[in-house]
Amino acid sequence: MTTPNSDILAVGAHPDDVEVHVGGIMAKAAKVGLNAAILDLTLGDLGTRGTAEIRHREAIDAAKILGVERHFLQLPDARFTEGETERIALMKAFRSIRPLVVILPSLDDHHPDHRRTHRLCREALYYSGLKNYPCPGEPWRPLAIAWVGGVNPTSPPDLIIDVTEVWPQRMAAFDAFDSQVKTDPNRVMTKISHPAFRSGIEGRAMHWGSLILKPFAEGLWCEKPVPVGLLQLWHSLK
Description:
Layout: E1 6-12, H1 17-31, E2 36-40, H2 52-66, E3 69-72, H3 84-97, E4 99-104, H4 112-127, E5 144-147, E6 159-162, H5 167-175, H6 178-181, H7 195-211, E7 217-220, H8 228-236
Parallel strand pairs: 1-2, 1-4, 2-3, 4-5
Antiparallel strand pairs: 6-7
């Protein structure tokens, strides 16, 4: 029987996506001894600020701060499709990393790449468990799939995880993406570099935390009933 290589894998369309939404969960997973990893589909090279090389370097630095592994699929930013080429690339990655729990971007996010990543990963995660699908590697399917709520979630999380003890570490990983998040009058202002964006991250975490009487928490969404694998992760991170 194939054994897992990773307890939790968070997928982002671009470097910094994971750090924006679940940096705390990833840092806490590493802190309690779980094998945690991030998979970035692209290097975000079509973004307004930064280059592929800069964003790759920042992503490596952020992963070190969080204490997690990082993998890069290097699909073309904004131009990847939901076709067989991308599906096979993801299936190979999932069969190699073999995660127990996978966290995806929001299906309802404002960014087309995030929505596309969610759909593409859901398909690839299903097909990667099929023995006869023509793809290298041993078949693998995670115990549970969850996703983030985006910057403006329309419903409360299905699972809330206290990240108070790793909050400074989590925000240090976010700040590692200097090309994207630093407010600089000499550079073009973007949504993520505006001070209000950082405030939004902190505000959401404080709100979710208030629901469980903790200073900071992060949320996950999933299909119901909540998968056992996700409940096991929650128990590990309590």
